[in-house]
Amino acid sequence: MTQAGSNGVRTVVVPAAGMGTRFLPATKTVPKELLPVVDTPGIELIAEEAAQAGAQRLAVITAPRKQEIMEYFRNFPELEHTLEERGRTEQLNKVRHAAELIRPVAIEQDEPLGLGHAVGLAEGALEDDEEFFGVMLPDDLVLPVGVMERMAEVRAQYGGSVLCAFEVPEDEVSNYGVFDVEEPEEGCPADVRRVRGMVEKPEAEEAPSTFVATGRYLLDRAIFDALRRITPGKGGELQLTDAIELLITEGHPVHIVIHEGKRHDLGNPGGYIPACVDFGLSHPTYGPHLRRTLHRILAEHEVEDSQD
Ligand code: G1P
């Protein structure tokens, strides 16, 4: 359900200023967010998800050397004209889609000071009466799409801030922001928990739970004030997790929506490749052939491995 209006999110902030070092050498010239999942860049998948959640504005935090991300959302008159002349309607619609989805706004982050710093820069992009906003990390694909709408429902009920959580195996928690959650309250929906603390990338043995933050946040405007008051945390960076933890200690309601779906990490080749395979298998044109090819490749590898 699309929620424009009072319950709906109007602005989604997309931190996209990272150097993409795990994708070098490709990211020497192509921003990580423009790498295609089958044929569509991750940033367009995010824009689509944001638009579906009702957002009209995509506040993209970019770095000076990553102008191509904003370029991607403009019109391409010559290309469009050529495709139109040749009657390539399907391609023409694909070219136009990003520009039609949502209004992008660029915000430059000159220095890589952390996710908390990046989100803090978006304050000026919000209208004065916007009480909350979304954050979508473009490294995380959360499927099926729609968790933001669920999070908006939860915020409408409980107020404050609402984050998306996944449950992960214990040995993976130290890659994430981890939630300390209360026992489910009576009458509380099964997928919702109140958060009583949050810690960024703890050691497995110190982690308060196996519920982790996965790239979708619905944040109350109060976060900006908290972001101004935190000091550098994990990795010497200003952490969004620390600002959320600060709000919790001050009594601000924070809840998680436990998402029962799948997710892909587009932030490194090890997660990007399975995402391409997953989307490829579902693709009407490429799916059937890819399925057969994957079986063949696996069989070849099994033979090679048995000869080692
Ligand atoms: C960021 C956040 C972390 C969150 C993760 C989700 O970490 O700091 O709390 O769990 O995204 O992908 P990053 O993966 O950017 O190091």
UniProtKB/TrEMBL annotation:
Keyword Nucleotidyltransferase: yes
Pfam families referenced in this protein's UniProt entry, alphabetically: NTP_transferase
Positions of the Nucleotidyl transferase domain: 13-275
GO BP terms: UDP-alpha-D-glucose metabolic process
Top-level taxon of origin: Bacteria
Family according to the record: Belongs to the UDPGP type 2 family.
Keyword terms of this UniProt record: Nucleotidyltransferase, Transferase
Annotated protein name in UniProt: UTP--glucose-1-phosphate uridylyltransferase
GO molecular function, one term: UTP:glucose-1-phosphate uridylyltransferase activity
EC number: 2.7.7.9
Catalytic activity: alpha-D-glucose 1-phosphate + UTP + H(+) = UDP-alpha-D-glucose + diphosphate
InterPro entries the record matches: GalU_uridylyltTrfase_bac/arc (IPR005771), NTP_transferase_dom (IPR005835), Nucleotide-diphossugar_trans (IPR029044)
